[in-house]
Amino acid sequence: MKTKQKPLYLSIVMISAFLVFLSSCQTGSNPVRGPAEARQRAMAKEILSVLINEYQNKDACRSAVRALRNLGDPAIREITRALKDDDIMEESKVHMASSICGSSPAALDALPVLYDLIRSDGKIPSYQKTNLRSACIEAVGYIGPAGGEKSALVLKDVIASSKDKQLLQKALFSAAMLRKEARPLIPELVRVATWDSDSTSRSFAVNALGNIGHEAVEAVPVLLSVMRDYRLRNDRMGWNLTINAANAILRIDPNEMEPAQYLVDCCFEHKDDALEFGTVYSFILNLGDVMEPELRKRLEKPFSLDSPDYEVLNKLSKLLERIDAGKKEKEESGMHAKG
């Protein structure tokens, strides 16, 4: 009697789990070589066949992508070859590009292929081209700052020319992941942050500017203008843009006091909305020491349980205690290092 065959995606999940186990057993960071690499490349080819033959099976493809990521460089090399194969359908290549991440040698070697696909105007249906370009743009972001100026310039072309919101937002997201290497994009990021009609796209651009840091100081006047725009505060997406602008300014220039004041004001103004309060509080938490002067100013006067703002004040007080504890720990570790 024939046994019932397991769904293909379950087999891929099992392979993925086994690879995770193997990686947890490895010691050191030396890349796989010799027979072991050959076995992993053979396994990558088998998994790629799932993406080629079962591209419409979402569960199988998700599991295959996870398995390929666990295989690392041997898989990326096979993916790079497959992405150059004109006989493979674009839908399959979307999943393949989504499997590339990290800044390993193989990932860096894949960048020229990703750049070509991003710039591609091949004779394929427009929705497929958009999906593939979007996946390649995202992969460039996940490879990150190691892509350097070349990645920045490719993303700059997309941001400057794209009329497709999906592609534009993917490019802005990836630009943020380049961090300081996104310097060549500053003019385009400022343009989107200022003039784009979509608040989400503007927020992506603002975040990318913040991730560049001090070298994006020329963008601060524009970001201040965005933060001060009261018209944006009438809906959640617009308000999110204003607090993103405040957060970005403080990552570019920690000495700007107005954004710190605005973020703390928002804690009080939005204390009854858990989502909005949580968003602005997380920004203050991540900014840490930058927010210390403003927090001290707001907490100068003692507060009691009877205060209508007790919950907010209490959380800000605990945050200040964390900042003080962190500074003390740094001082003590510095003293030990000198000793």
Question: Would you write up a description of this structure?
Answer:
By secondary structure, the protein is an all-alpha fold. It has 17 helices and no strands. Helix 8 packs antiparallel against helix 9. The chain is globular. The N terminus is likely disordered.
Q: Find the count of extended strands (DSSP E, 2+ residues).
A: 0
The global form is: globular
**Broad structural category:** mainly alpha
The secondary-structure element order is HHHHHHHHHHHHHHHHH
Q: What labels would you give this structure?
A:
339 residues; mainly alpha; 17 helices; 0% strand; globular; disordered N terminus
How are the SSEs placed, and which strands pair?
Elements: H1 8-25, H2 34-53, H3 58-71, H4 73-83, H5 90-98, H6 105-119, H7 126-143, H8 148-161, H9 165-178, H10 186-195, H11 199-212, H12 220-228, H13 236-252, H14 257-269, H15 274-287, H16 292-298, H17 310-338
Helix pairs in contact: 1-3, 2-3, 2-4, 2-5, 4-6, 5-7, 6-7, 7-9, 8-9, 9-11, 10-11, 11-13, 12-13, 13-14, 13-15, 14-15, 16-17
Short description:
With 339 residues, this protein is mainly alpha-helical.
